[in-house]
Amino acid sequence: MSTPPPQGQGQNPFAQQGQQPYGQPEGQAPYPPQGGYPQQPGQPGYPAAPYGAVPPEQPRRKVSFKLVKNVVIVIAVIGVVIGGYIASRDDAKTAAVGNCMHRGSNSDDNPDLEVVKCDSTQAQYIVLAKVEGTYTQVTADSKCAEKAKDFQYSYTETGDNSNFLLCLKDYKK
To answer: What is the DSSP letter of 93?
Structure first.
């Protein structure tokens, strides 16, 4: 018959180095928590999926504020460009001899002349001459008298690399 070694004296000659007494693994509590250990898939007792594993749902791409803002800006710029193009199609720059014009503003500084069809009710003036160059009011009137004898009005425009003079008279239907 063997006797156990006395408590507190010496070490257990049969214990392995680094192992806790009584065969407990290191770092585990001596008793399982209430409700037992949590089960993980693949362990016995874990319920299996009835039709196999379901693949995870792909994350949906969220529409960010930055993306919406950029799309709105692009649409606005395109709208301004298209509006500018439409507005400039019938302005005084595109006028030619024989075209009819409409005055869009009552201001003498900016009459906002635009080309219209001569059979339109808006037709007010007819272009008698178009002369390229920069003119003052005095030189414009003398140039129009030289190019179109029966002119009544002169219109000059400068800027945007398009300096020109239009010699106009009232359009009578």
So the answer is: G
